[in-house]
Amino acid sequence: MIKAMFKAWASALLCVSLSVEVAASPTIRERTTDLRALLTDPARQWAANTTVSFPGSTNFENATERYSIFNQPTYTAAVSPGTEGDISKVINLAKSYNFPFLARAGGHGGANMSDFESGVSLDLSKFNSIVINSAAQTMTVGPGVHYRDIFDPLYNAGFYIQTGSCSCPSVIGVAIGGGVGRLMGKLGLTTDALQSVRLVGADGVVKTVSATSYPDLWWAIRGAGANYGVITSATFKIQPLSNNNGGNAFMLDFVLPAEKSLEYLNIIEKSFNPMPVNLAGIIVFNWNSTHNVSQVVSDWIFFGTEADARKTLAPILALNATFITATLPWNRIISVSGGGSDALNCVPNKLRNTFNLNLKTYSAAGWQQSFETLTDFLQKYPNGRGSQVILELFANNATAAVPSSETSWPWRDVRGFFQELFVYDTGDSVTAQGAATYGSQLRSQFAAYSGYSTPTVFVNYARGDERIEDVYGADKLPRLAQLKQKYDPNNLFAYGHPIPLSYP
Ligand SMILES: Cc1cc2nc3c(=O)[nH]c(=O)nc-3n(C[C@H](O)[C@H](O)[C@H](O)COP(=O)(O)OP(=O)(O)OC[C@H]3O[C@@H](n4cnc5c(N)ncnc54)[C@H](O)[C@@H]3O)c2cc1C
Ligand SMILES: *[C@@H]1O[C@H](CO)[C@@H](O)[C@H](O)[C@H]1NC(C)=O
Ligand SMILES: *[C@@H]1O[C@H](CO)[C@@H](O)[C@H](O)[C@H]1NC(C)=O
Ligand SMILES: *[C@@H]1O[C@H](CO)[C@@H](O)[C@H](O)[C@H]1NC(C)=O
Ligand SMILES: *[C@@H]1O[C@H](CO)[C@@H](O)[C@H](O)[C@H]1NC(C)=O
Ligand SMILES: *[C@@H]1O[C@H](CO)[C@@H](O)[C@H](O)[C@H]1NC(C)=O
Ligand SMILES: *[C@@H]1O[C@H](CO)[C@@H](O)[C@H](O)[C@H]1NC(C)=O
Ligand SMILES: *[C@@H]1O[C@H](CO)[C@@H](O)[C@H](O)[C@H]1NC(C)=O
User: Fold this and answer.
1) Which of 187, 204, 198, 188 is nearest to 221 (CA)?
2) CA of 147 relative to ligand 2 center, distance in Å
3) Per-residue pLDDT reduced to its tens digit, 288-304
4) Residue 504 lies inside a defined structural domain of this protein
5) In this structure, are 184 and 254 located in the same domain?
6) Atom number in ligand 7 closest to CA 379
7) Measured CA distances, 401 to 35, 187, 281, 285, 413 (Å)
8) How remote is the CA of residue 162 from the centroid of ligand 3, in Å?
């Protein structure tokens, strides 16, 4: 019975079947020839473990694969370096020959990349080492390391760390844009655990960046880290499991029908506002394809004992619902919670069209309105019924305890995230149009309840059409732009959510 439910939840994202197509225009073909000659010239003297690949090969497919194919970049070549020296080589070649390149770690970036055309994927997947130093309580990872790769090694060594909510993005990719997640209340952002990084700059030179080495860059890369160089390793502070109930968390998952949504959302607004420091809730509005209705799905994680969890969650446990509960070790939280939906949520190469917002106010009225608007979309667009609205509700005690001036990450008062995820088949222009219309409408409706005076969204969740001030913060931009001018004057790192060379 539990199994059937898990399967059904997960199927929310299954109804999408797509294939990647990159149209080859004449200019693209011409550029391909140039890059192929340039990159395969023996004068390059690539290291033996560097791979150069082109369309039509598995190496190329792997080196350019992305989580979402919505507004994806187009590539004509990929370099998968085995050494930092070869990363420098790609950067220097790009500068000399003026071709676009894009560092790729986990491939989960959500920015609009459609202005990146016929470029080179600088695929960092070979930098996949994980070194845990138990005595120093640190972990050093390369950009090819995904969250799923660190759970068991860290846990088995007696440690844990704050992470994002899914297993598939790269640890470094998440960290350099902030890195929000369920442990924000206790430990802060993923970026707050950073101690130092190695970075190949736009000048091709390898630098150690930390509080004592390039401190200006150290400030910038913790929030806007994709703009200043290629990070080849990062060292994080890790926490002993013994500080946190032996690493055991309590999970409470359940589904509520639409009729109960407002009662439930009111309970959250009244009883979990502010969110208790050990608690995190992920609430999903989606479509129940068995009953053909919209519904509210919940996943609550409490870092502590079951007894304390039950006390804290009592207002929710008083609801008339079928609860699924479990005690989960830290390394199993992401794979088991939410009905095991992580595995399916992480399937790459699907069209995923997202509109997201930061939130700092908890408003049942705002959440309910978005549930009703989403329901309207789901009823009208049967081919978009894998679409969802996701509320991530996290405490922010440890996040807010770090002074804002410490990092470039601008939203230390944030207490949750509003995410719209539209999924439909490529070529389904009817549903695409519906998603575009409802997507913007839902976002502007909810922005009024977000607690911010403008629709803000941190960089990892930004779509690409937001005002730059609403992504990086107006107060951070002058310094970020000065540092961009200083460290990347040729604007080599110009895609995604680029920091301008001057601001204002
Ligand atoms: C399923 C899913 C779950 C997510 N969950 C969370 C979450 O819980 N918390 C959160 O904060 N974010 C989350 N995100 C957002 C995620 O953090 C960002 O999309 C992040 O940019 C992904 O990094 P990546 O390396 O996987 O992606 P990529 O597409 O490889 O990289 C994203 C951007 O960062 C640049 N970049 C990546 N690595 C490096 C590097 N080593 N040096 C320099 N530049 C680099 C790339 O050039 C690109 O511009 C999630 C995204 C998805 C799709
Ligand atoms: C569909 O709704 C029923 C009744 O609320 C619930 O028991 C079931 O788990 C739901 N299915 C999914 C896929 O969430
Ligand atoms: C490509 O990626 C797949 C899936 O991760 C893997 O099984 C395969 O070995 C990779 N191929 C190459 C050539 O690296
Ligand atoms: C690639 O080879 C060089 C030289 O042998 C080595 O130093 C480096 O660690 C290798 N890179 C990877 C990612 O294994
Ligand atoms: C993505 O960017 C391109 C080029 O900048 C633009 O034409 C397009 O409208 C953008 N797409 C979305 C969905 O914002
Ligand atoms: C609890 O919910 C079930 C099914 O949703 C319903 O049949 C039952 O009457 C409800 N009980 C109470 C006390 O509301
Ligand atoms: C589901 O609802 C749609 C209208 O929203 C209707 O066309 C369809 O027949 C329903 N399917 C089932 C199985 O009830
Ligand atoms: C966490 O912060 C909230 C305010 O946002 C505060 O009310 C609460 O007491 C703090 N919790 C702890 C454990 O410090």
Assistant:
1) 198
2) 29
3) 999 999 999 999 999 99
4) no
5) no
6) 5
7) 48, 10, 21, 31, 10
8) 29
